[in-house]
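Duplicate of #3305? Posting structure anyway:
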């Protein structure tokens, strides 16, 4: 993985009274990234972890990386703590592993493959995460097909199908 930036920052709440924690980075730093603010990254905190994430808008002049409660706990981090962090370019441009069920559906169904190719990276991540949350394979297939049909309908309505 290619190191894009390293530095120190405080873990801060994204918004008051909200459970989301973030590390913030200046947009001037992000300007040097390969795809600017659209670059998918891997975040390491205090030399540990492998947090795949994107760069979100935070406050003017800053971008932030969200840190889930799960990662906060597993890395022993606290809100307000000063940490050393490293930002690497994610070798997987999608930023998430494509589940086997989706790979199989794409290989077997031309319509699914065509819809997949027309989806934005964000919509691809959505179906990947949604599929991974479901444990029953039959239900994974059913929900994925429903998703692709709904996306196809959107494309038809927009005149892109």
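Output from current build:
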């Amino acid at each position: 993985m290619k190191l894009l930036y390293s530095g120190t920052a405080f873990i801060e709440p994204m918004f008051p009274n909200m459970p989301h924690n973030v590390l913030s980075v200046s947009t001037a730093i992000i300007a040097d990234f390969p795809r600017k603010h659209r670059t998918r990254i891997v975040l390491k905190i205090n030399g540990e972890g492998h947090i795949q994430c994107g760069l979100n808008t935070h406050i003017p002049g800053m971008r932030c990386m969200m840190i889930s409660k799960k990662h906060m706990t597993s890395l022993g981090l606290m809100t307000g703590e000063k940490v050393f962090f490293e930002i690497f370019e994610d070798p997987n441009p999608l930023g998430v592993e494509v589940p086997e069920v989706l790979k199989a559906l794409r290989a077997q169904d031309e319509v699914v493959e065509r819809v997949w190719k027309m989806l934005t990276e964000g919509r691809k991540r959505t179906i990947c995460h949604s599929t991974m949350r479901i444990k029953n394979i039959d239900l994974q297939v059913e929900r994925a097909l429903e998703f692709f049909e709904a996306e196809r309908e959107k494309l038809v309505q927009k005149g892109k199908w």
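Confirmed duplicate; merging threads. The first strand starts at residue 3 and ends at 10. The mean pLDDT is 93.
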